[in-house]
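hey can u check if this looks right to u? its 323 residues, i copy pasted from the old doc so theres a chance i mangled smth
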Amino acid sequence: STAHTFGASIVTDKGEILSDVRATYTTDKGGIIPSEAAEHHKKVKDSIIKKAIEESKISEKDISIISFSQSPGLPLSLAVGKNAAIELAKKLKIPLISVSHLVSHLEIGRLLTKAKNPVYILATGANTQIIALEGNKYRIFGEALTIGIGNALDKFGREIDLGFPSGPKIEELAKSGKYIELPYVVKGMDVEFSGIITKAIHLYKQKKASKEDLCFSLQETLFSMLTEVSERALAHTEKNELLLIGGVAANKRLIEMLEIMCKERNAKFYVVPIKYSGDNGVQIAWTGILQYKSNPEYYKNLKLDEIDIKPRQRIDEIEVTWI
């Protein structure tokens, strides 16, 4: 139950996906309105959960654990998932596992691509981070300083009336655009998208550039920045795998740029399958299994009233006990 998506899935401990049902809050104009997104989740939650169980062709009694998206995200949306998960865990008398949905992007990527120990590019709405496992923590080598790449594209899309989510519409418009210069802001290993978006909006409102040209140029600029810092992370960590995950991983131009860079470095490039690039129940279910198997006694003894959402939790705060 993330900012804009409510999903449910049944997954086996071998990584077999038995069902995957989800519904996404969208708008024709403007961005996410938190209260409306939460109301959307409340309306669909019961039917989504029911359908996920029906599709899996197993009965409720065969479910041995439940996991839910605890962090990070909009509090109202996270709370809907937490409450639904607690209700179901009480009903079935089974353990409840709280999962970082950012960690779950990494884990579903590893499961489905078979990447072993990659540098990750996590490119979602609110988060843009270059991550790698170091000891028992995921270390952030670089990140977006103010606004994630998905939210940056959505902010621009909102200003030119593309609605939410804007990413796919920007990708389509970019196909008929040409390059115009925009700021390029890389600070060490970090990237800064905010000023670039402001400049693009300014050019559009002053009628100095078309939607198509700005969409093309935004993609070329933002994705080049990500490619640069990803290459630097590969060199620093001496890893030879790069894995692109998160909703923006669906963008074909970003994939193309990263593929070229990895080929030149003789590194393996993986991208999470497009079906699982956005938020989904599968990633939460699978990561819950990994966490549970690493410490079953802890989760069996955990009281449900001790579990709460963590809207601002960072990925580098989480101890990785399952790898």
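The CA atoms of residues 260 and 269 lie 9 Å apart.
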